[in-house]
Amino acid sequence: MAGKRSRAFLVKELEKHYLLSGDVDGIIILWEFTLKDGKWRRVLQVPQQHKKGVTCISGIMVSQTAAIFASTSSDCTVHVWEMLLPSTGEGDCKLSCLDSLFLGSKAMVALSLAELPGNTGHIVLALGGLDNKVHLYYGERTGKFSHACELKGHTDWIRCLDFSLSICTTKDDSLFLVSSSQDRSIRLWKMTLIQTSIKEEEIGLASYIKGHILAVGSSSYQISLESLLIGHEDWVYSVEWRPPTKISPEDNDIHQPHCILSASMDKTMMIWQPEKTTGIWMNVVTVGELSHCALGFYGGHWSPSGDSVLAYGYGGSFHLWKNVGVDFDNWQPQKVPSGHFASVTDAAWARSGEYILSVSHDQTTRIFAPWKNEDGSSWHEIARPQVHGHDINCATMIQGKGNHRFVSGADEKVARVFEASLSFLKTLDHAHFQTSSVHVGLQDDIQILGANMSALGLSQKPIYVQGAVQFFPILHLRYFYNV
C-alpha cells in the first residue's frame, strides 16, 4: 500500500514480534508474529486514526511488557501511544494515548524515539519534515510532551531520523541522533549529560554558544553538531544505526558500534564509521546499482547481526549485500525475493525453455530463470529488460538469432521488439552454471553487445560488437540485471 511505513520490535521472553503499519488512509494496525508457529495475525487497530496518510512510525521498548510508539501524518499531527503487552503467552494488548501534538502547517515526515541517558525516566522525541528543522520534544513515560528546541542546519526537507542507544562510559552519558535530508547531507548530533541538579535560569550564555541546552527535570543535556557527512549525490532518504550486539555470548551487556547506514536516490548505500585515530567520520563502504531504471533507493536496513544490508526502491525491488569477508570487509550482492507488484497480464516461455518472461500492469517486463548452485536450483528474477511508462498487456517470444527475441504491447498501442544482448546471455549462462565459461545461448553472429540510454531519453541505443565497445559492457550488464 502506498505511503506505508512500519517499525518492528521484539519481545524475547514472549517469543513474539510486533509490527506497526500505517497506510494512506491514516489507519495504523498492530500485527503479531509468533515464532513458534511462524504465523502473523492482526491484533488491533489504533482507535485514534490520522485524517491523512501516515508518513512515519517509530517505537521503542521501555520494559519487557511496555512499548511507546509515535506516528506522524500529512495532517500535521503526531500521536504518542503507550502499548502494554501481555506478560504471558495469552492476553490482549492495551493501548493508551499519551499525547497528541499539533505542528501547524508544516507536516513532519520523519521521527525517532529514545530514552534519555542518566536514568531520568524521560523520553526524547525527534521530528523532522518540510521546514528543514529537527524538533526535539521530551516527556515522561506516562505524561505529556513539551517542545525543547530546534536543530537547524539542513537546507531541504528532512527525510529520516534515528537515535542511537545511550552510550554510557565513565566520562559522560551520551546519545546520538543522525538526520538525513534532501540537501544530500547527513548530520550527526550529540546529546551529552553535562550536569545534574541545574536550574534553567543558571545556564549561561557560554553554554548556549556550544550548543542548545535541554533541561529535563534535574538533568541537563548539551546538544551539539558532532559531524557533517557528505558523499551522496542525491536525496538521502534513509539513515540507520547498526543494531547492537552482545559483548560476549556469556554476558547480557550489549554494545552498539559507531556505524551508520545511509540509502540515497543516487542508487547507492554507504556505511559510515569514525576513524580510530582521528575520530573523523568517513565513508568506509559503498554499494549500489548501475542502471537506468527509474529513481533510486527509498530506504536501507541492517540485518540483526549487522553483516548484511538491504535496500528497496521505486519499482518494488530489493537489493541485498552481505559481508562475506573474514579478515577484511568484502560486501557482495546476493539473490533476493522479487516479483511483480501489480496484475500479471501475460507470460511466455523462451523457445529453449531456459526461462520465462512475464509482463504486468506494474509497467515492467521481467525474466525468471532457475539459478543453479551447490544446494540445487531455485527460480529468481535475472533480468528486467523493459521498464515502461504504460501498463504492459501482452508479450510473446518470436523467432530470432538464438531464439531470444520478444514483442510486447502496452496501453500506448505500440508493439516493441526486443533482442537479447551478449551481456544478458552471459548473465543467463552464469545463472545456469555458476562458472566463468560459456555454455548456452551464445552464438558467433551476435551483433549487439549491450545498450546505452541517455539520461533524459526513453529509448535504448544498441552498442554493436564492431567498433570501440570495450567501455560499455558493465553499464549494460547492470541495466539488464537490475534486481
UniProtKB/TrEMBL annotation:
Pathway the protein contributes to: tRNA modification; 5-methoxycarbonylmethyl-2-thiouridine-tRNA biosynthesis
Pfam families: WD40
Residues in WD repeats: 151-191
Alphabetical UniProt keywords: Cytoplasm, Nucleus, Repeat, tRNA processing, WD repeat
Subcellular location(s) per record: Cytoplasm; Nucleus
Example GO BP: tRNA wobble uridine modification
InterPro entries, alphabetized: Elp2, WD40/YVTN_repeat-like_dom_sf, WD40_repeat_dom_sf, WD40_rpt
SMART domains noted in UniProt: WD40
GO cellular component, one term: cytoplasm
Broad class of where this protein is predominantly found: cytoplasm
KW Magnesium (keyword) present: no
UniProt entry tagged with the keyword Cytoplasm: yes
Family: Belongs to the WD repeat ELP2 family.
Protein name: Elongator complex protein 2
Species this protein is from: Kingdonia uniflora
